Amino acid sequence: MPCSLCSADAPLAPYAVSGGPDGAVAEICNTCLGQIEGDLDAPHWRCLSGAMWSTEPGVQVLAVRLLGRLSRHDWARDLADQLWLDDETRAWVENVAAESAHRDSNGVVLKAGDTVVLIKDLPVKGAGFTAKRGTAVRGISLVSDNPDHIEGRVDGQRIVILTRFVKKK
């Protein structure tokens, strides 16, 4: 049986898809599993063009989440725009997204690629500088497993920023 996401003929492991019916799993290979839990290699995930049409709702939800994490790529946004989900599966995606959304200091939902402004001087540990209040951080990335953290570049350094210290521009 091939991987539910990339169709690789490799050993599979069950991956629990949260937020839906109990026992919702996708059978995925170690390559996909490693990337889901870490950094995504965008070229590998072009396979989502097939996985997003799976008859398994858990696989579809996982594909939507991955496309969201890859939204800085035009091809991923195009695939997400093409996707059709039945009402129950769409509700699953939207409920989980609303619960785990990254929000700025004013409660505004942040998306990957947004520009935010720092509302406080922030000392950057390990880099030896302070990110000044009013600094614009363009093209943020969302930390997938923590809705309180985003990543962005300040003074050429990629740093993790707490969402409570930013506002969406």
Q: What is the straight-line distance between the termini?
A: 47 Å
Number of strands: 10
Regions with pLDDT < 50 over 5+ consecutive residues?
none
Please state how the strands of the largest beta sheet are arranged side by side: 6-3-10
**Radius of gyration from CA coordinates:** 17 Å
Strand pairing plus helix content: what structural class? Answer: alpha+beta
The residue fraction in helices comes out at 25-40%
What is the molecular shape?
elongated
Element order: H for helix, E for strand: EEHHHHHEEEEEEEE
What is the domain tally? 2
H/I helix tally: 5
Hey, roughly how much beta strand do the residues contain?
15-25%
Biggest beta-sheet profile: 3 strands, antiparallel
What is the mean pLDDT?
88
Q: Descriptors for this entry?
A:
alpha+beta, PhnA domain-containing protein, SH3 type barrels, 5 helices, YjdM_C, 169 residues, elongated, PhnaA_N_proteobac, three-stranded antiparallel β-sheet
Explain the overall architecture.
There is one protein chain. The chain is an alpha+beta fold and 169 residues long. The chain has 2 domains: 12-99; 116-168, SH3 type barrels, CATH 2.30.30. Helices cover 27% and strands 22% of the residues. The protein has helices at residues 30-36, 48-51, 57-69, 74-82, 87-99; strands spanning 12-16, 25-29, 116-118, 122-124, 129-131, 136-137, 141-142, 149-154, 157-162, 166-168. It has a 3-stranded antiparallel sheet with strand order 6-3-10, with no helix packed on it. Strands 7-8-9 form a 3-stranded antiparallel sheet, with no helix packed on it. Strand 4 and strand 5 (129-131) form a beta hairpin. Helix 3 (57-69) packs across helix 5 (87-99). The protein is elongated and about 50 Å long.
